[in-house]
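Assess this one:

_____
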Amino acid sequence: MAELFGFELKRKEQDKGDAKKKSFVAPLEDDGSSYVQAAGGHFGQYVDLDGGQASNEADQIRRYRETASQPECDAAIEDIINEAIVSDSSSAPVDLITDDLDQPDNIKKLIREEFESIVELLQFNHYGHEIFRRWYVDGRLFYHLIVDEKSPKKGILEVRPIDPTKIRKVKEIEKEKDPATGAEVVKKVDEYYLYQDTALVKSNQGVKISKDAIQYTTSGLLDPSRTKVLSYLQKAIKPVNQLRMMEDSLVIYRLSRAPERRIFYIDVGNLPKGKAEEYLKNIMNSYRNKLVYDANTGEVKDDRKHMSMLEDFWLPRREGGRGTEITTLPGGENLGQIDDIIYFQKKLYKSLNVPVNRLDQESQFSLGRSTEISRDEVKFQKFVNRLRKKFSWLFLDLLKMQLVLKGIITEADWRVIREQIVVDYIRDSHFSELKEAEVMRERLGMLTELDQYVGTYFSVEWVRKNVLMQSDEDIESMKEQMQTERDSGEIPDEDDL
């Protein structure tokens, strides 16, 4: 294999993979990477990158971005991001929990410090909202990790975002025939990234970048063929287009049907046909509407050169009739009904898993009572938590690279550590406090009602565990604290009461 751009971690031969694991299929990962057959040449295998899949994917990303720019879709996306990434002046949006980590305290401290350095490299405290939005809309994030290859123990020096329309992950498969069965088995799978300065197309031009030099985070959503990464906006493309068409047709209908149109019956007497038509045209040019609608700007202009949608009707009437007459046609009815628009707006919000009641700006949000929290809000919170877990791989992958480069841990250690650490996102403190206060108020109210039955039908320990929801550790800690406070005189002793 040719020399790759960027650094590459030195791995032990037994860690390189799957040389001893025989199979006729390549390992499947949910990253949407393209599989190509090794052909021996440097760039020969890239001429047809999975049938032009990369080009289609770049177009798909542009479609996601266009969809996200629509006002209703943008409002729904902002609701999601504001729930997922909470900015607080006193603390960082994310933190690392190492309580369950089975490592010495000094290792825990180093891991937390490196996590803080990763957050700082990403400038997540300042740009967390924008980073999460890029990941949510595009369905993927690419970062180039800049490392001093002569002194890798310095760790990651800088991370630079890469436009996902210009880079793609590729897996090059090398197969050999099994002498015993005659089947072609996978001998080796090389992973790398292919970067082109312009949008990816079926071309043999590009830069091959080492797998370790790129951080790649996906949405985790794949198309039915499991070869293409999708954005969370995939389901919203159709509702957005339908809503846009309905709004455009509504505007045209309103402009064409709302005004009252007139019918002019012009008495032309005994004029010959040619003279009568000329006379009618002169009268019409003098009085007809000059208003036209510009679809590009949404403006109504006065322009005699264009036929108007609001044209009146001009009809000649011969001598012997009722003479010149003007009648009025009524405008369209039911112009105030927008039920179809509201339907597609709700459909859009449902496709993005956002509660429909957030669409109604006039509705008031309940500030904390748990009994008033709707089922949709609960589902929405669970959806946001799933998004956070998927997005956490951005921090975990960078943290792994930082720890391995600095020699704090090995790659083998990381396989165990990553299951014991959790990336924690801060919640909206105001609403969290209101909710916790409401829950505590409900528990204390129940406790008051059960107090007369404690010792008769319920034990104190049962009440503590099932009403106050205290764990065994909480109960022991409370007992110790209360005893300490009695000894110090902060609370009166039971004998003194």
Q: What stands out?
A: The CA atoms of residues 443 and 466 lie 10 Å apart. Residues 40-52 have pLDDT under 50 and may be disordered. Residues 259-329 form one domain.
